[in-house]
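Question thread 4412

I'm putting together a teaching handout and wanted feedback from people who do this every day. The idea is simple: show students a protein as raw sequence, then show them the structure tokens that encode its fold, then repeat with a second protein so they can compare. Below is the first pair exactly as I plan to print it.
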Amino acid sequence: MTLKRQMMTELEKEKRDRQIFKVLEEIKAQVHQNTAILHAILKRQPLQDSLPDVSFRFPLRTREDISNLEEILKSKTKENALTMHLSTIGGTTAKDIMGRLMRHILANELATSFNWVGRGNKSPFSTLRIISSIKAAAKKHGVTEAECECHIKQWLKHSSDRDGGRKNRQHKAVEANVGPLAKITLARRHLPTSGQPKS
């Protein structure tokens, strides 16, 4: 190897080393910046506030559970804590995210007593304080407010079909129609066939 070629090789190696060192310094600076941001966030949002209220358990199963939650959510701190908790549930599509959220929050037997605006004999879900936390949690996953409301409405609407609800209704409908059909069948069985003398 000539002296000139050797010098060029050394220069290229030195240049490469400087580039690597520069990248490492940039990574180090970014780590320091991220650490500073994390510390600032933790100072504004204490760790205990990032957890749901320990006196409350999901899913909600009774009206009393709903009332207790509404009382808890009068505290903005608790509302923010619940939002952070719900945002960890996640999902893929908007429908999947909202379905997972609603299944986590409401037991199906309680869900059947609600619809969005409270039509008929059902209670309005849209007026509950938890709606704010649900929307905020869904927004963290890119779900718009309109999508959120739409999927909640559909989820509540079909709550009576889950857990075998639709199958049970169909079974009852069949049972309700079996009586007359059975009577007709029995009557036909007792009719004399052609050529058979009547008793």
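The second pair follows. I'd like the answer to focus on this one:
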Amino acid sequence: MTNDEHLLALRTFEADIKANKSEVEEFQHRVLRPVLKHLNEKLLALIAQETHFQLLLKKSLPAKEKELELRNFIKKNKHFKFTSIGLTCALFTTEEFEFYLAHKKDLDKRISQMVEERVVSQF
């Protein structure tokens, strides 16, 4: 079994892909969603070790304010952003990584947004 075949075997989730999607949207549904689902526990552990996040959880703020602070923290924390993008890219096949490199700016933005939604929805 090749490395790419091992990576594909890790994915236990396949998103429904509707017609008339751009290549990047199709990549998001076919690749990013399953990879981020697979990384869920690691992403939660990554943010949980951040001191600011730990302090945020201890604050007695209304839920909406906590959510807003968490979103701001995720958007502004470069270490978390680049680590989550790196973790995601590490689970791409060679072909997927080549596609990622060709669309890096757009896919980095999509990965960051998807990670943000995934993390915020669980706290």
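Top answer:
Good format. For the second protein you could add a caption like this: The mean pLDDT is 84. The radius of gyration is 16 Å.
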